[in-house]
Design goal:
The chain is mostly helical.
């Protein structure tokens, strides 16, 4: 689910970025849409990172017997 949604947003972002780059005059509406896509991508990246970082397991080894 994460990868599918991210890929769709990434494609939309790249398309919009190319359109904005090739327009002679960029409208505020286009700039806002591009910024919104960037924010959504960043949010997904952060959520994915948090999910991956919380799946770590810390194991504490105890020594057997006192020498």
């Amino acid at each position: 689910m994460f990868a599918c949604r991210y890929q769709k947003l990434w494609k939309q972002y790249i398309r919009m970025k190319h359109l904005v780059a090739n327009k002679p005059k960029v409208l505020p509406k286009d700039r806002d849409k591009l910024r919104a896509l960037e924010d959504q991508l960043q949010e997904i990246r952060l959520k994915g990172y948090v999910a991956l970082s919380t799946s770590c397991v810390v194991v504490k080894c105890a020594t057997i017997g006192n020498a």
